[in-house]
Amino acid sequence: MLTIGMPAGSLADPKRGGNLIELLHNAGFQTRGYEAGGPSRFATLSSFIGWDGRPQEFGSQLGLNEIDVAIGGDDWIHERVLEFRYEYQREIPLKKVMSLKRGNVRIVGIADAGLGITSVEDYVAGMLKSRGIVRVVSEMPYIALDWLKQLVEKAGLEKTYGKYAVQKYTSPPKIDKGVVIYETWGKTEAKVKNGGADLGIEITQSGSALRNYGLDIVQEIMESETGIWVSPAIYDDPEKKELLDMFLLNLSGALNAEEKVLLLFNVANEKAPLIESYIRENRVFADEPTKNCGDTFSEYSLQVNTADPDNPMPRIRYELAKRGAQNIDTIPLVSSIQSMG
Q1: Are residues 161 and 18 part of one domain?
Q2: Cis before residue 314, ω within 30 degrees of 0?
Q3: Are strands 260-268 and 297-305 parallel, antiparallel or unpaired?
Q4: pLDDT, position 341
Q5: Is there a single domain that holds both residue 239 and residue 210?
Q6: 325 and which of 56, 59, 226, 320 could share a cystine (Cβ 3.0–4.6 Å)?
Q7: Are residues 93 and 147 in the same domain?
Q8: Residue 186: its pLDDT value, please?
Q9: 63-85 pLDDT, tens digit each
Q10: Residue 170 preceded by cis peptide, ω within 30
Q11: Which residues on neighbouring strands pair with residue 2, listed in sequence order?
């Protein structure tokens, strides 16, 4: 059995989250109940178990071998890895085995734009020397802690101000010198804007919401996307490893098929050289064009990338028709597996 962490929330919403349900379906992993909030199950594969959960928790579940595979963002996996490191002095060597090419965001440090911060390192050093404490708010407190510890070390202040405390917003500081990280449940921007903290950590795509609050991005901490994560322990179980390989192979086929179609058309054999010259010179195929020869006509099939700005689909079909292509059919692809590799 392969237990897969199925992310609840926006990723499970068929109208949001990069169409994760559609991606799984195209890969052959039809789900039942997932889009309705669970319980999730895989309709055609009894050896796959869906574990509904929050992406914020999957890193811990992988680290404790409660689940084998997780569909989650790099940011929340990294947050749990850091929590295990700082709170439990334990390393959990989780591995990202596939990008799902969706859910791209940035994790950034933010501050009030009115401060005009040009160097966040100098700002932190100044706050510590003048007040003894820097207050930071974040939904990802251990990413915030890791970031601040690096800033304090770069400023050469770790001996005097190396203490830290991770606590709920807004409780009395547990330390008198160092970094206080307040864990919040959202609206980090408002807390920074209204003076509830000196710095914040926020998830953003364009940064427009931060600018609306009058906040500046003082440093980009990391980029994040949705991917497939596993615990290395899965490689010690040959049967689970086999199921994982099947899962990844079929997902890769669905990902590879995105923005691709199959063009099928017929050409009189005397015009075939014109067609073949055009498609080779313009590289409007994947590996090589497939050709089925008849007595007077040949059928061609081409896998074409519809998002290629150098070869837009309307132009390709037009150029093929000019050179004698007939009955040009455009067939959407849901999966295109290149090889076991």
Answers
A1: no
A2: no
A3: antiparallel
A4: 76
A5: no
A6: 320
A7: no
A8: 87
A9: 999 999 999 999 999 999 999 99
A10: yes
A11: 48
What pLDDT, in 10s, does the model give residues 42-52?
Answer: 988 999 999 99
Could you tell me where the DSSP H helices lie in the chain? 20-26, 55-63, 74-88, 120-131, 141-154, 158-161, 188-193, 208-212, 238-257, 272-282, 313-322
Token pair recorded at residue 219: 């440093």
Give CA–CA dist 111/120, Å, rounded. 9
Do 291 and 237 belong together in one domain? no
Strands 69-73 and 178-183: unpaired
- The model's pLDDT over 284-304, given as tens digits with 9 standing for 90+, comes to 765 667 889 989 999 999 988
Is residue 113 located within the same domain as residue 173?
yes
Domain containing residue 294: CATH number = 3.30.70.120
Q: Which domain holds residue 212?
A: 106-223
pTM score of the predicted model: 0.89
Measure the CA dihedral 77/100/249/292, to 10°.
-170
**What's the CA gap between 315 and 319, in Å, rounded?**
6
Inter-axis angle of helices 74-88 and 141-154, nearest 10: 70
- Residue 337 covered by a domain: no
219 and 110 part of one domain:
yes
Are 247 and 270 members of one domain?
Answer: no
**Backbone phi, then psi, for 201, in 5-degree steps?**
-120, 130
| Residue segments in the chain with a per-residue pLDDT below the cut of 50 | none
Q: What is the pLDDT of residue 239?
A: 96
Together in a domain, 216 and 237: no
Structural tokens at position 271: 């015009």
